[in-house]
Amino acid sequence: MTPLKQSTAINLVMGPFVDETDGRTAETALTIAQADVRLSKGNAAYAQKNDATSATHMENGEYSVPLNATDTNTLGRLKVLVNEAGALPVWLECWVYQANVYDSLFGGTDFLETSGLAQEFSISGATLTLLKRDDTTTQRTKTIGTTPGADPVTSIS
Predict the structure, then answer these.
(1) So what CATH class is 2-102?
(2) Which of 50, 58, 117, 152 stands 20 to 30 A from 28 (CA)?
(3) What Cα–Cα distance (Å) separates residue 1 from each residue in 46, 58, 123?
């Protein structure tokens, strides 16, 4: 599944679109309008995408399909389906993540929040900072040097 960030515009690459007769020849001149791109958000009924822009051919039957923030506003499964005359149907399975989860998992700068003892880790130079949550309202920070052989977790109080 393609990961997407909630409420964020993106251009999806879909295809290849191939000829419905021989199942092999790339379809490079399709007109894929807004109404031709159908979305199922969170397993709900299909509806046309909100973004009014048509898809554009890239090469070899692959098309760029723009989605806007409204198209990606529902967390969970997002299925994108295009059934254009002259070509076999093409679909793409996506998963929409909350912004902080997406940024944590796919190269952003946010930390993934978890429950339990260790909440966040950050490293700056030779300093490791651990945030430890004791209950739902208290958070303590302990900054320690990264001494070789030392156990940083046991030194948090």
Answers:
(1) mainly beta
(2) 50
(3) 18, 21, 31
